[in-house]
Batch of 3 targets.
Target 1
Amino acid sequence: MKTLKGKGVLVTGGSGFLGTHLRQVLEDQGVEFCAPAHAAYDLTQQSAVRQMFLDLAPQVVFHLAGYVGGIWANKQRPADFFYRNLMMTTMVLHEAHLAGVDKLVTVIGGCSYPANAPNPIREETLWDGYPQAESAPYSLAKKMALVQSQTYRLQYGFNSVVLLIGNIYGPHDNFNLNDSHVIPALVRRFYEARRDERPSVTAWGTGRPVRDFIYARDAAEAIVLATHKYDKSDIINISSGEGVTIRELVDTVADTMGYTGKIEWDTTKPDGQIYKAFDVTRMREILGFQPQVSLRQGLRLTGDWFVANYEGARL
């Protein structure tokens, strides 16, 4: 697909974190699209999904809608996370096929990999074990997108692509300390600690674990690029491919947020998996893509946005 201009483009989950960045990329490229509000169509109901395709008649679909939350939320509502995500993707992909959509691109997360996957994590290891137990219902529901993509391509010739996104962060993220991911939680905590002149901030664990992060705008650009350059159902890792320790991350966030107090480590809290970074060879070779925003630059952009939008951010 050479261009999206002039195509009917649908974005599900367009008001979400990644969806907001995808919309910005499309706007910057001059691509017109429709991103209906969550209340307009219940994507867990087949009749509503079918009506969406009848009403909007898209040719290209970016399916980013999902029911997401942190580890605590996943532990409290595992059935909801399994059912809602399984039904949304199943219905959207099935009805897209029936509606004659030219191409659908969807995403799953790095938590879909086995908890003990060897590092750096390669795409071929996706089915080599069970995901992290706390979020497995969500992860397994999302992984079914790959099975559906492969089977619908085989039986119907339906062109869908599944990308696996690493740990994304950036403006418009969820900064709720009860269920946010590590970077938005740190950004908020260091901002509020500086504002309130707190002498110290406590971080969990030893700081030894290594993680791999990608700025949300970079991830969105890779997703759009895949519509032009990729027409298979085998997953591609989308991430930086560069590991950073949590201790380095904490120090960098503190620095970019202007916090000069003491950082204390609560080593009674668990570290989790020690090393988790992604092999991005396929991303570079197939998509020809390389993230443009460094971690420090991305953290500064995220922090600046959060401070400027504190009252309206997801707190």
Note: Residues 9-172+213-239+278-292 form a domain with the Rossmann fold fold (CATH 3.40.50.720).
Target 2
Amino acid sequence: MDKKLDYFVDSRQLDKELILSLFEKTKKLKGSKTFPQTLKGKILTTLFYEPSTRTRMSFEAAMIRLGGQVISTENAKEFSSAIKGESMEDTIRVVEKYCDCVVMRHYEEGAAQRAADVATKPVINAGDGKGQHPTQALLDAYTIYDEIGRLDNIKVAFVGDLANGRTTRSLAYLLGKFSGVEVVFVSPENLKMREDIKDYFEKHDVKFSEETNLAKILPTVDVIYMTRIQKERMTEEDYLKAKGKYTINEENLGLIRKNARIMHPLPHVEEINLLINTETNDKRVAYFRQAENGLYVRMALLEYLLNVKC
């Protein structure tokens, strides 16, 4: 990529060269016994208008491990001036004066781009409504690269709530950068992948199909990317139609290839029903390693955006 990114709010901002460069940096950090204090003197703000566990904590841990500091608010929707009516844009313009980078999660699709448009410091999208979650996509792609050994010539199943799932949308955009990728969308009829992603795949020659039978596709794919049915983003009627429809359990685990991987952005609920012993010892279960990778990917991204030469 000729021009360096000033912010990161959309998976489509990345090209293949930058993705692989960030992966090399991630691998180096993951293999380190001690971390370079490359961000000493830098401050990260985590501004989350929606709940988060993994994303927020891994970003904060990433900044601290690299020698930086973090300022935050527990719930920006309630415990910031947003409750007084301050616009998100005004909040960003104030908060960035206190820090070097802002990681923001917001309930409105497109909010991250709006924030980046008014900011003079790097803004990172940690999830914007039903829109995107690009750093999740980056760690997901790294996990596939690390576990399967490649991102070209793979077959991936996206399973569950594809209409509301920002993680699958963001990962779909990244997979479109690679060749020989095939994707199967497995979802209830009322939660199918939105047309813009299908259009993107068609433009980028990504082969895709839609399926309702999970058992049929399990033996055929390299990666099963499970997602939670997002009750908070749909009507009760839609939720009841989809609840419990697709599950990975001890029975259908036997259908999955020995060298395939089960991934999930977490938290998982009824869509994963495996014994703790299986989750601990079966190499096909990759989602806890996936979550761990989030720390190192976000360390690499922070170094990149904050102009660390290493």
Note: The CA atoms of residues 50 and 90 lie 18 Å apart.
Target 3
Amino acid sequence: MKRSPDGLAPIVTLDRRLAKPLHRQLYDGLRDAILEGRLRPGQRLPATRTLARDLRVSRLPVVAAFEQLVDEGYVISRVGAGTFVSSAFPGHRGSRIGVGSSPAADASTTPRSHRRRLPRSPLATLDEPWLERWGPFRVGQPTVDAVDARAWGRLVAWHARRMPERLHAYGDPMGYRPLREALAHYLGTARSVRCDAEQIMITSGSQQGLTVTAHALLEPGDEVWCEEPGYRGARDALLLRGARPVPVPVADDGLDVTAGIARHPQARAAYVTPSHQYPLGVVMSAPCRLRLLDWARRRGAWVIEDDYDSEYRYDAQPIAALQALDADQRVVYVGTLSKVLFPALRLGYLVIPRDLVARFRRVRDAVDIFPPPLHQAALHDFIRNGHLTRHIRRMTAVYAERRRALVEAIRRELGESVRIVGDRAGLHLTLMLPPGADDRDVAVRAAGRGVSVTPLSSCYAGRRRQPGLVLGYAAAPREEIAAAVRELGSVIGA
């Protein structure tokens, strides 16, 4: 651009070969010059006729660009005086996040003083290469090719076409009422959970359920018993609330309540996985359950029961939920359909003590207002038509066979060098490695060979860490299990 009589530097160029309209090119150029400090607050811009002449374009795109800049507050127009860069706009030099910029580049060039203003995150930055690939033994991953896709797709399509207008509006923070009624019946039959639809909240998976629970029950600084070793996702949900997850050891019959009372007597809640402890797989005994509930009653504390994969039990009948023993309404029950159907469904649920429903409802409203209804409506029909029960029955047989193949391959390929625990239920088992073994190193090297195992040490919050590997077998085809175990064995023995 030629220098105009107003002294504006040649900072804007137009290219008629571009698909972008001329007025947009001019708007972008002037806006960027303002944001980057090349046009200073209060600086006068050329008249539209002058700028059009200098740029050799008609006045129309120049007027359109100026009007857009005025509307967005970058410049102000004074009748009889001209157009000026807004004095209220701070302006700055250097890079900025904007159109066409790279977030990574912007982060690297942001002044250090600006980066320091970010609040310190309570969550650690983790390097977990074993979770970066889809390989045999990925923990928490059910098989995704066994759901009756035809039935599910038909239900989703039917509801997408016929969803009533009321379901296109804002909905209930607790979720789709018919689905909650179906889940209340299912949980009462399958898990002995005592509840009705009024107590059930539909969530975006169990992780959101844990987050909502933490915000509804806890104050920043509250101590919460957490199983050691245990599920890091629960600890993260507590940390985001500002609570203090405190490790309590897991014994052969579940969480050591006596140790919890001795070490952290002022705890406000306890997080447990009683039906199939993650990651060790032990079942909390009835005496231990009663001790935990008695502690919660006397302390006025809460028990958060995560029942993440209890549908699958192979050598015995399913264990009733801890919530079924709760006569004092101290248990919040957390469930998910991610392990039952498929993770991308993102549907979980909470069973809330009746006198806490209003409080949980208010928290959920603040989080994301309400869960989307389409998949909820389809899932309601999936349950009502018997598809869910048939799917669980079919997958129990499939997973039992994969578990059997994995145990046999481990004993054949690894022999006495490892010990298997937690293989009677659920979708994973754990291999205990010899003392002194570096399970993280094994997991990293296994990931490099396409085998995804989780180091047991990553499940510990405290310093005492027993080496081991957590193997999920649900998504591993039976014919691939033996070869994957041999590959893992070569890594362990290296």
Note: The longest helix spans residues 387-413.
